[in-house]
Amino acid sequence: MAADEFVTHSSEETIAMGRDIAGKLKPPVLVLLKGDLGSGKTTLTKGIVSGLGAAKEEDVTSPTFNLVHEFRMNTLASHKGAPNQYKVYHVDLYRIENFHDLESLGLEDALSEKAIVIIEWPERFTFRTDWPTIEIRLDHAGGDSRRIAISNLTVEKGLRSTPHP
Ligand code: ADP
Ligand code: MG
């Protein structure tokens, strides 16, 4: 799978990259953020969500306790072809233990409307959706450097979520 690779050297640079990514997202889209704790998944999301104009950077925080944060977004002319209003979901599956927990998040509802769904720790489950999916992998690269690899995934038809034991 081809991936575009970048290196950022500060959280500000990662936020700026998130803003760039935001300019390329059109709902419906699933954004999977993979990488260790502290690799910058939430930081990148600050850039994506603020870049979409759905919230201020400082209002995008880790969904560690709520697990799902929902933002409402009014589109301007910059998002051609998008509906006038859609939602942006920021999800963290780190604490999700099983399929029952996953179901209780209402993610499948989120995926039934045209939305932008950003998921941290997606490797806990397999997501099958006909939505365009972007996978972003973040890795520590020494000090404040982070390697960020972005790929477009080929997706399978039909939404289903499978727990990984
Ligand atoms: P995650 O959500 O992957 O656990 P966070 O985004 O919450 O990670 O945390 C990343 C931490 O690393 C933050 O404290 C951030 O300030 C710091 N940091 C340092 N350099 C970078 C960088 N280049 N990109 C992203 N975060 C960085
Ligand atoms: Mg996080």
What is this entry, summarized?
The protein is 20% helix and 34% strand. The protein is α/β, with parallel strands linked by helices.
Which structural traits does this protein have?
165 residues; alpha/beta; seven-stranded mixed sheet; two-stranded antiparallel sheet; globular; binds adenosine-5'-diphosphate; binds magnesium ion
What do these coordinates show?
This protein is of the alpha/beta class and 165 residues long. 20% of the residues lie in helices and 34% in strands. It has helices at 11-22, 41-51, 99-104, 107-110, and strands spanning 4-8, 29-34, 68-74, 85-92, 115-120, 125-128, 133-140, 146-153, 160-163. α1 (11-22) crosses α2. The model is unreliable at 154-160 (pLDDT under 50). The protein binds adenosine-5'-diphosphate (ADP) and magnesium ion. Magnesium ion binds at residues 41-42, 62, 92, 120.
Give the count of helical stretches.
4
Shape estimate: globular
Percentage of residues assigned to helices = 10-25%
Structural class, from secondary structure content? alpha/beta
Uncertain stretches: 154-160
Q: CA-to-CA gap between the ends? A: 25 Å
Radius of gyration computed on alpha carbons: 15 Å
Mean pLDDT across residues = 86
Please report which band the strand proportion falls in: under 5%, 5-15%, 15-25%, 25-35%, 35-45% or over 45%: 25-35%
Name the helix and strand elements from N-terminus to C-terminus, one letter apiece.
EHEHEEHHEEEEE
> What is the number of E strands?
9
- Name the hetero compounds present: adenosine-5'-diphosphate, magnesium ion
For the biggest β-sheet, the strand order reads: 1-8-7-2-5-4-3
Main sheet specs: 7 strands, mixed
